[in-house]
Amino acid sequence: MTLGPLIVQSDHTVLLEVAHPDAEDARHALAVFAELERAPEHIHTYRITRLGLWNARAAGHTSEEILETLNRYAKFPVPSGVANEIADTMRRYGRLTIERAPVPGDAAAEEAPTQLVLRSEDPMVLREVASAKKIAPLLGNRIDEHTFPVEAWARGELKQQLVARGWPAEDLAGYRAGEPYDISLAEDGWELRDYQAKAVEAFQRGGSGVVVLPCGAGKTIVGAASMAAVGAKTLILVTNAVSARQWRDELLRRTSLTEDEIGEYSGQVKEVKPVTIATYQILTSRRKGEYAHLSLLDAEDWGVIVYDEVHLLPAPVFKLTADLQARRRLGLTATLVREDGREGDVFSLIGPKRYDAAWKDIEAQGFIAPAACFEVRVDFGEAERMDYAVAEDQDRYRIASSALVKQPIARRIIDRHPGESVLVIGQYIDQLESMAEALGAPLITGQTPVDEREQLFQAFRSGAEKILVVSKVANFSVDLPDASVAIQISGSFGSRQEEAQRLGRLLRPKANGATASFYTLITRDTVDQDFAQNRQRFLAEQGYSYTILDADQL
Which of 235, 122, 234 is nearest to 181 (CA)? Predict the structure, then answer.
């Protein structure tokens, strides 16, 4: 009998032997409930977390399935303490429910008023949470040993506090229907893919939650199909104005909606229509200390709120989302990773993960392009090495990631891919300006007017421009289907989500079936190299591996 590729340890870490023939199957099964922590060459370390287990439970997985997975792939017996903890953690999800119940004493009324209640079949659990200092003010006087009333305004905050105490509540209180609005899909020469239909079905079944799909796998179509399934006025929140216009174009192409029915609410335009697309930036902009545009959320009787790139949800939006618990909420993302550690708030306030498709599964079906990842290590020049050596800690990453030697190396990589469409992506504007000048290529940053950005992106799509130098404004929600090469010259420190999004710019299937190439230029023996290891963790979890190259090998 072949021993498996996993070693499950009593501290809830799981070691994966990368070279084992079953490693890919085990990695795929682990991704349902565990998070990758470290990914050096030979042994990858995962951690089984409470949130991961609760998300798995909300998506329909059981503790028996998870233990069967661990036992199937484990080299040694799974520690009994870990097995018991997994079962106990997953049992906690749903032991408390938030429901809607008639107000006592008013049951005889023709339309009996209702109230929110927190309910549990286990009175001990209910008493434990109700006595907690941060939860007690959210509840009224106990109705019976199984039920507490919930303050009308506290539905979101209660869920946050329950997750923090380790007792995630299943929200069964239902949602306002919103003002009905007929939206239908226009499946003209196309149809929902199987995984997209499953994602929509999972959202409908839960009423709120997050759908996780790879970049390029059609998250916008899942959003459109969910809107059609609900059939109500919809508010869509997106990262920027370019994304808003791409959503509008996709809705016009994929649904019965017309231009008159879709409004844009951004820095440039303030329209409220039956389907309104607003930017996070405008919602969180302040005037005299006040969030001036939050009234948009109450301007219409929305039936659905769609959060695009939900992993980027700004902190102020968490607060307003706590007030929107009576509306259906759909989060769309390629990764639930948040560098600020607020995954628990996404779980509480948007909803649990309802559907998750592995990147390599979608690639195997031909719906996203295969990609090869390379880490190219370069060396400082002598003067830069000295600047780095004497720099303060806060300046070292900028110095390392902006090494001048990256310019000729970028040119060398471009020459390796004649005729291909290349994105050069970075963090620092002065570095990008210098790179754009050296390559003779146009530059897009946050300061580039939206119309000019659109023109340059369109020139890139058409092939009129073969190279674009872009800042982080191109990380998200920019549809560039013909991009086949990306050269990352600097980034937001160790951001896993940014790494995933940047690779995602390349994953639209290519007409010729070609493999995309993702290069990261790393200055050797610096913090640039240290941060790169952290950035790569999420993609390693999805089954991507990085080939390490010395610049001379190019």
Answer: 234
